[in-house]
């Protein structure tokens, strides 16, 4: 079965491991992921000012394209893309003024076929017909966690995993996030369906440092360290997450965290789709585990065989 | 031409005159002219904003509007035929941010584009560039590919670009799309596309002096003889497959035998 899938720019070069593991895992579950034609960057950041609609035209156009291709829903794994697309869609549905402004602008789009140079103009308005789903929601509501559990090929019962939500999957509230912004459970339930042991930790919704990695790197390093440290002292073997920027801060910048904190010696970080794909029996070499700063391969192979009392 | 024929020609021309507005001033011009020829017909001497006159060089990017329309239309003035009541302004030059680089030291990755043109990420996906392209390139599409680090895709999608500058003139994020695109095409050619083996062989032949004798012979020829050789040369037929080769391969490197 085909599902409409918006990967986002980061998954095409910087985190191909997230894209690849998503496709591989979904293929095992019987889904092929189809990207909308001519997709652009979603904008990455929802406009901070309510009045600013220029940042909403790109995500609205992506959703209109999915709609025109017959998609009733579009699935994302990047937490930033999810956040921008979902909030834009909600704006279009709930805010008549923004709906009008966005559609008036997008009506004049020109689409050009690269081969025939045929131009398409005069686009119908988009009124929020497409449901924007994070892959975790799709797995829960469409695939069903029980289906995942029934299809497990590898044992993860020895692995203690801390689910890290970060910000973009949950906030702001008001129907945007994939679960309650205060006490979410969807990630925990997902990991349980893989057979992992779930580790709760107080920093699971704290910010990883986000774009401060660019403007104030030391502050981002500290924020990331606190998240990792919290997972470690709560007994986790690894962190699972969904956001490419969280991955960048929590894994790819571990060299800087080591420099800042002598006691820190590195910690495995997974995309949730890598754990899903691995549990479903996907070949290890297509998961892109060697792209990580801390290669998390070893914890998959060296899980404790028996339950250890805590 | 006889006087009466001259007269009738003038009459014919006069009958098909249409009004256009060049930088706001009204002119009557024959309706069969391109914008470029109409400018000259109206008395303008084109020193800049005019190059090959064949739609290739991209020097004559032009914007125009019709009364009662909010749409800005674009074209190359050497290719676009005038229409009644066009309000026309040519864009003889538009300043563009251009990075300098040593192609050999670069890698064909998105990070290279990002380092040389970081403003690329200011793109908000409005699509104005695509609406402003006289070559019917989906400019926003190739910028999207550049943003996601797809060098080969950017090179391919931007291939028809003539670098007229209209996209950059209209971009709210102040990107210079065509310079990003040509960097992608250069990176593609230098680092991704497989090297053309027959080119290397041809260069080697030149170094070995394969052409010396032939050039010497040509130099000795008089004008008439040269003309004869030139017009009698073998050229590729209009319809030929990619494996076509002339019979005489003395100076060429064969794709088949190399």
* Number of separate structural domains of chain A: 2
* CATH topology heading of the largest domain in chain A: Rossmann fold
Unreliably modeled segments of chain B: none
The amount of beta strand of chain A, in percent, is 5-15%
Q: How many strands, what sense, and barrel or not for the largest sheet of chain A?
A: 4 strands, parallel
Could you spell the SSE succession of chain B in H and E letters?
Answer: HEEHEEEHHHHHHHHH
What is the strand arrangement across the widest sheet of chain B? 2-1-5-3-4
**Topology pattern of chain A, helix = H, strand = E:** EHHEHEHHEEEHHEHEHHEHHEHH
What's the rounded overall pLDDT mean of chain A? 95
Rg of chain A, Cα atoms, Å: 20 Å
Overall morphology of chain B: flat
The largest β sheet of chain B comes out as:
5 strands, mixed
Q: What gyration radius of chain B follows from the Cα positions, in whole Å?
A: 25 Å
Classification by helices and strands of chain B: alpha+beta
- Which class do the helix and strand fractions of chain A yield? alpha/beta
- Low-confidence runs of at least 5 consecutive residues of chain A: none
Overall CATH class of the largest domain in chain A: Alpha Beta
